[in-house]
């Protein structure tokens, strides 16, 4: 059985290492001294770490606020990392200002969802009483 030692880049690189059992590709952490001993004994080799980034699975959708008091908003979520959030705008520009930072990327609102959002915003705006133009 061959064991692969993968150094883990951290602030303190000497605090841990990852040992990978090559038939099963199962990884586990060992103290660096153990990793060096395995390499010295000839049963392990050191390889570069493989950084696996999650694949963003972003979903955008416009949200209609209950009751018509507030403008519609944009909801964004990601099923890969579980992050989600809502971008609101009193001026109907949430589709422009929305920045969804997750999975190492910055997502912006896709065009088709922006059109749905704008349609909801125009509908909301047209139903406003005369006291609009607040802000
Ligand atoms: Zn994500």
What is this entry, summarized?
With 135 residues, this protein is α+β, with helices and mostly antiparallel strands. The chain has three helices and nine strands; from the N terminus they run βββαββββαββα. A hairpin with a 4-residue loop joins strand 2 and strand 3 (26-30).
Descriptive report:
By secondary structure, the chain is an alpha+beta fold. The protein folds into two domains: 3-46, no CATH class; 58-126, no CATH class. The protein has helices at 32-40, 94-97, 111-126, and strands spanning 3-7, 17-21, 26-30, 44-46, 58-63, 73-78, 84-88, 100-102, 105-107. The strands form three sheets. The chain has a four-stranded mixed beta sheet, with helices on one face. Strands 5-6-7 form a three-stranded antiparallel beta sheet. It is rod-shaped, with a radius of gyration of 25 Å. The termini are far apart. Mean pLDDT is 81; it is low at 11-15. Zinc ion (ZN) is lined by residues 54, 56, 78, 80-81, 83, 102-103.
Beta-strand portion reads: 25-35%
Oligomeric state of the chains present here: single chain
Low-confidence stretches: 11-15
Shape: rod-shaped
Helix and strand content put the structural class at alpha+beta
Which SSEs are present, and which pair or pack?
Elements: E1 3-7, E2 17-21, E3 26-30, H1 32-40, E4 44-46, E5 58-63, E6 73-78, E7 84-88, H2 94-97, E8 100-102, E9 105-107, H3 111-126
Parallel strand pairs: 1-4
Antiparallel strand pairs: 1-2, 2-3, 5-6, 6-7, 8-9
The protein binds zinc ion.
């Amino acid at each position: 059985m061959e064991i692969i030692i993968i150094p883990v880049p951290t602030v303190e690189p000497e605090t841990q290492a990852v040992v990978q059992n090559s038939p099963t590709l199962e990884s586990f952490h060992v103290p660096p001294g153990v990793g060096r001993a395995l390499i010295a004994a000839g049963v392990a080799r050191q390889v570069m770490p493989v950084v696996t980034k999650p694949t963003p699975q972003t979903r955008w959708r416009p949200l209609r606020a209950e009751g018509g008091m507030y403008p519609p908003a944009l909801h964004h979520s990601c099923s890969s990392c579980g992050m989600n959030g809502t971008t609101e705008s009193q001026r109907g520009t949430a589709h422009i200002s929305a920045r969804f930072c997750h999975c190492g990327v910055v997502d912006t609102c896709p065009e088709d969802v922006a059109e749905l959002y704008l349609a909801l915003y125009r509908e909301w705006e047209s139903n406003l009483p005369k006291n609009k133009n607040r802000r």
